[in-house]
Amino acid sequence: MSALITPTDLQDEIAHNPKLVVLDVQYTLAGEGPAFYAAGHVPGAPFVDLDTVLAGPAGEGGRHPLPDVQTLQDGLRAAGVQTDSVVVVYDQQPSLGAARPGGSCAGLASRRSSSSTAASLLGGPPAER
């Protein structure tokens, strides 16, 4: 699978790939991610919070430094990601936040010798609504 996936290809993956996990990572600095998720999301996609799962505490590393490995692994497992999952992530347009969990999944996969793959949904959830 490519690093970017179209809504049409996502529908095909949903229909035919039992290892697929779709993650909603909608986020704004004002904390509107949960509200965006409540307003609409890809069916079956859990919300994964950037502040608590995809980032460590703010500080010298910046506002959203990478989280420690255990926090990230626990958060992704709670969202249904396993070592052999195919992960598709999306956020609201312009989809800047979707790159973080995709890269994090790839990083964890390389550290754990797993076969996880990750992609970002082109267009975010409006294309799916």
Element order, helices and strands? EHEHHHEHE
Spatial order of the strands forming the largest sheet? 1-4-3-2
Number of separate strands:
4
Quick one: biggest sheet? 4 strands, parallel
How big a fraction of the residues is strand?
5-15%
Instruction: Work out the helix count.
Output: 5
State the helicity in percent bands: 25-40%
Poorly predicted spans: 108-114
What characteristic shape results from the CA principal axes?
Answer: globular
Average pLDDT across residues? 81
Q: Rg, please?
A: 14 Å
Q: State the secondary-structure class.
A: alpha/beta
Query: Ends: how far apart?
Result: 23 Å
Give a verbal description of the structure.
The protein is built from 5 helices and 4 strands, in the order βαβαααβαβ. The protein has 129 residues and is α/β, with parallel strands linked by helices. A 4-stranded parallel β-sheet has the order 1-4-3-2. Strand 3 (86-90), helix 5 and strand 4 (117-121) form a beta-alpha-beta unit. It starts with a strand and ends in an 8-residue tail after the last strand.
Quick recap:
The protein is 36% helix and 13% strand. It has five helices and four strands. It has helices spanning 7-16, 33-39, 50-54, 69-78, 99-112; strands at 4-5, 20-24, 86-90, 117-121.
Strand and helix layout:
Layout: E1 4-5, H1 7-16, E2 20-24, H2 33-39, H3 50-54, H4 69-78, E3 86-90, H5 99-112, E4 117-121
Parallel strand pairs: 1-4, 2-3, 3-4
Question: How would you describe this structure in keywords?
Answer:
129 residues; alpha/beta; 4-stranded parallel beta sheet; 5 helices
